[in-house]
Description:
The chain is mostly beta strands. The chain has one domain: Thrombin, subunit H. Helices cover 0% and strands 57% of the residues. A 4-stranded antiparallel β-sheet has the order 1-2-3-4, with no helix packed on it. It has a 4-stranded antiparallel β-sheet with strand order 5-6-7-8, with no helix packed on it.
Amino acid sequence: MLKVFVNKSAVIDKLKIIDDKYLVAAGIDPKMRIWNIENEKLVSKFEVHKYCTIHLLFFKEFLYSYGYDKTLMKYNFMTKSKDCWIDVRSHI
């Protein structure tokens, strides 16, 4: 094991690696965290869902996530902004 990241505030159950540089962590709390793997620094922390994140997918510069609040979110990783979201009537 080369590195250990510590998160004191939440249980993490979703992890994605982006371009071998960034680690995206999401879980029970409503926040998503993006870490720089090389220097072990937190790059961004933002609230995406009202509750936990269920699914997490990365494509190009976008993070797509679906949460327990029945919201499908598109987040632009490069500009650090929410591009759009869809409220779904039932769970996917």
